[in-house]
Amino acid sequence: MTTTPLTARAPRARRPSLLNLKVTALRHTLGRASKPGLAFLALLGIVLVWGEVYGVWRALTFLGTFGDIGVGVFARVLEIGLITLSSGVTFSATTAAISTLYLSDDLNFLLTQPLPTWRVFALKVAETFVNAALVPVFLTVPLLLTVAAYFHAPAWAYAVMILADVMVFAAPVGLGALLAVGLMRVAPVGRVREVSTALGVLLSAGLVYAIRALRPEVLVQKMQDPTKFEALLRDFAGPTSPLLPPSWAAQGIWQAAHGHLATPLLPLVVLTAGLLLAATFLASKAYQEGWARALDSSTPKLDPTPKRARPTERLLARLGPGGSLASKDLRVTLRDPTQWSQLLVVVALAGVYLVSVKAVPIPIPQFRGILGYIQLAFQGFIISGIAVRLAFPSVSTEAKSYWLLRTAPIDPRQIVLSKFLGVLPVTLTVGLVMGVASAKSMSLGPTLLLLSVLVSVSNAFVITALGVGLGAAAPKFDADNPAEIGVSAGGLAFMGLSLAYSVLCLLLLAKPAAGSVLRPDLYPGLSALGTLEGVLGLIGLGLATVFGTWLSLRTGWKRLDGLE
Amino acid sequence: MIEVSHYTKRYGKHEAVSDLSFSVQPGAVFGLLGSNGAGKTTTIRALVGLTRPTTGTVRVQDYDVWKEPVKAKAAFGYIPDRPYLYGKLTARELLRFVGQLYKVDGADAEIDRWLEFFRLSDFGNELIETYSHGMRQKVAIISALLPDPAVLIVDEPMVGLDPHAARQVRELFRAHADRGRTVLLTTHSLPLAEAVCDRIVVLDRGKVLGEGTMDDLRARTGTEAGGVHGDSLERIFFRLIEEEQEEETRRREAAQSA
Fold it and tell me: What phi and psi, each to the nearest 5 degrees, are found at residue A536?
């Protein structure tokens, strides 16, 4: 056999770009997405950004009338905001990192290609950032740009502020990746995912608790004493947590807005780069091995004795196909660390909120009442945070096994209702506990206590239905990992709509609530609810709850039915 | 029984299946054959309610799959080409779930029997995520057969199965049809189709090239006298494809000369 020698050297192949691969996939996804859906999402985004820009500008203008101290207060609020948001990212970064770094479907392909491990790892860390920190970045960038515009910052400051913002969220992602690689390397084989996820959640909870231990409510307490108020403002204008990375970011951002490049940005850059480099270094040693360990399952026991249905399964099966589905979902949730870890996050979120509310002493009844009513909107935000983890992905977590339901004699309506009824007990319990406990701890009157209960119930029903409905209308069965599901276009639309619903609930009953708080002499007991505004507000809340729930679920099952 | 009537499926301008009609009577094993992209899986997906026909109807046991989906789905069992199953359930739990959805009486005993049949009894309490591809395929086959459906719809059934299991499955399909039930299967395995199918449709690029029993197809393609591969289905299959390609060339030349 003869071979023909090559006369010309073939052009050298370009090194493949993994990021480019993902961007191409994203472009295809957007190209095939529903255009009206994208338009709606864009509109929702524009409204939210406009509201944020308008609110920040108004706040700066108002506080600016108090001079440097007033503007300094805004700087501290910005710092507290960044601390809170980065705590949230820290909380979910480890579980998101485990899901993205170790459970992604494309790892089977990527880690068997002739690619350096660190490149695959870097891609997955970038995905973890998108999954865990994209929403906070989107939320803060318009705010920072408004601050820059307000202070007529130079052009370079805009880039510095955005960079500082990205780094303040990249640091916890780097920490999460570092923890994930370490935990997956040392956890016992066969239970690697379970043990790593549990430890990751505990470590993150510990970190968030440490930040909570800074007790910001002490500051609020001082605000009640007029003699200390001026001193407080002065103190408040200066940084109080000089060792926290978000404080460095806040100072760097603030100084940049005023045209100065601040030194606190240096430790932030060093920390973020250090964490990411340390994670990459550790990954180059242990990533591939950790992934292989994650694939190993526990040793089979090979017990031929048939295990029959337990009483809970038998009980739920009596309710028909929907009950059987609920029983299956419960079992899968409790066995899947990426799902049960979300329950821990839910409990921790509600716990941190309740501790915070309980620790705020407000002696003036009117102020307490108004704050007690407004905080119901924050409870709605927390229910949204729970629903985006439990309700929205409930249909998508069927993943590629969905064919089994789709070809079985079960109606899409039964699927959606079963998912809704499976999540509702969690959101309803958390909502009611938060509503009643916060109302009691703030010693609210009977009208506000009742409204707390009603708004909590309404939030739980509508937000859960919105989550399940939109999740069924735009399911993501082919997500590379579970952490991706909530940051899809549907997930972002859900967050926007549920936040809007929380505010709508407050607006519907604002009149009777204000009457009972500001004029308790005119509206004793529950009498504020008997006024025309009260009755109309209650009817409005009832209608919004019924129609919001029904329309959300109906949209879900109709779209699921038409899905191909 | 299965009735596919003037079924067409378009994706934008691309026509995946064009005006396909056939029916499968009880007691028959019907094979849907064709090259990659011929439209076999698209047809199966319409029959099991995973893809809506652009035009035409698909009926199972006299129920229109898209108008009375729950009744139609209660009448068939489906074995997909890729056995994605809930990894966090054991085989017994998954099969119990299927038994509950299809309201199977005495499901526990049936599940034990099927697991024993496929030599999976020892693994019945293990999570499916620990199973090999072949074991998952066996569980998918059991889940389709557990309700003893009047119609069995199968997409590439032999992928991942060992020779012993492949023979068992072949015999199962034949026995299922012999008990008066209907079996429709798509396959690339010509020996399998030849061994179990009573009637066959050969598809290519969404169009029917030939339909009938093996004898009908032999007569149609003139392969009775034998050839390189004798009168095997393989010979018939390639002859039909060649005929279609010759026809396509003739059409193109006629269009060019016009």
Answer: -65, -40
Burial of A227 (0-12, 13-18, 19+ CB in 10 A): exposed
| Gap between the Cα atoms of A59 and A51, Å rounded | 12
Cα nearest neighbour of A304 on chain B: B122
pTM score > 0.90 for this model? no
Of residues A426, A430, A420, the one with CA closest to residue A349: A430
How far is B177 from chain A, CA to nearest CA, in Å? 21
Q: What is the dihedral of CA A431, A434, A437, A439, to 10 degrees?
A: -90
Q: Give the angle A75-A81-A84 at the CA atoms, nearest 5°.
A: 145
d(CA A226, CA A216): 18
- Neighbour count for residue A290 (Cβ, 10 Å): 25
SS3 call for A361: coil
Q: CA-CA distance, A183 to A51, in Å (whole number)?
A: 42
User: How far is the alpha carbon of A51 from chain B, nearest alpha carbon, in Å?
Assistant: 40
The two structure tokens encoding residue B151: 């119609």
Q: Contact, A446 vs A526, CB < 8 A?
A: yes
**CB-count burial class (<10 Å; 0-12, 13-18, 19+) for A562:** exposed
Nearest to B184 by CA among B35, B43, B36: B43
State in Å, rounded, how far the first CA of chain B is from the last one.
46
Backbone angles phi, psi at B186, to 5 degrees: -110, 145
What residues of chain A lie within 8 A of the CB of B69, using their CB? 411
Chain B residue numbers touching A312 (CB-CB < 8 A): none
- DSSP state, residue A308: P
Task: Specify whether the CB–CB gap between B181 and B165 falls below 8 A.
Answer: no
Each of the 258 residues of chain B gets a pLDDT tens digit; together they read: 899 999 999 988 888 898 999 999 999 999 998 888 888 989 999 999 989 999 999 999 999 998 999 999 999 999 998 889 998 899 999 999 999 999 999 999 999 999 999 999 999 999 998 899 899 999 999 999 999 999 999 998 887 788 888 899 999 999 999 999 999 999 877 778 888 899 999 888 888 888 888 778 777 776 554 444 455 667 777 777 777 778 878 888 888 877
* String of DSSP letters for B80-122: -SS----TTSBHHHHHHHHHHHTT-TTHHHHHHHHHHHTT-GG
Pairing status of strand B14-24 against strand B63-64: unpaired
Integer Cα distance of B209 and B216 in angstroms: 13
| Residue A277: strand, helix, or coil | helix
- Residues of chain A contacting B89 with CB distance shorter than 8 Å: 328, 331-332
Q: Which residue of B has its CA nearest to A562?
A: B52
**Tokens found for residue B6:** 């003037």
Say which residues have a Cβ less than 8 Å from residue B93's Cβ, sequence separation at least 6: A328, A331
